[in-house]
Amino acid sequence: MSCVKEACRKAFQSQPQRLMAAMYSCVIQVPADALGKMYAVLGKRNGRILQEDMREGSQVFSITAVLPVVESFGFAEEIRKRTSGLASPQLTFSHWEVVDVDPFWVPTTEEEYMHFGDKADSDNQARIYMNNVRRRKGLKVDEKIVEHAEKQRTLTKNK
What we know:
The chain has helices at about 1-15, 35-45, 75-80, 110-115, 125-135, and strands spanning about 20-30, 50-55, 60-70, 90-100. By secondary structure, it is an alpha+beta fold. A 4-stranded antiparallel beta sheet has the order 2-3-1-4, covered by helices on one side. α2 runs antiparallel to α3 (about 75-80). The chain is extended. It starts with a helix and ends in a 23-residue tail after the last helix.
């Protein structure tokens, strides 16, 4: 049994690992004057616009977008707050989508360091998703607690 288990593990690890993210289909009714603020909220939460339609005889747009489920917590409240209550979203589960970034990728060559810099993995979306799930489940997360430890700050009052 252990030989089969090891063979399956090696087969899975031979290909780059990818995460699957659940996606919501988001239909938003928003007037024309709050359209920019709605785009800002969707962009901040990694949403993608699929379709835009304007209702005839009114200034109301019907926007269809996809939004990752992990980014959707608090989405309705934020979009209503940013648009002063003018936008009304409706979220329904749509599909699963592969996050096309390897969560374990780190730059190895000099070219990659020059192109991405030293903090190349800081905005790796797959790693952020993975660490959030691990943190929520109480598992170990590999991250630095202190980012720049050059100065020491004394919290006691100087006398």
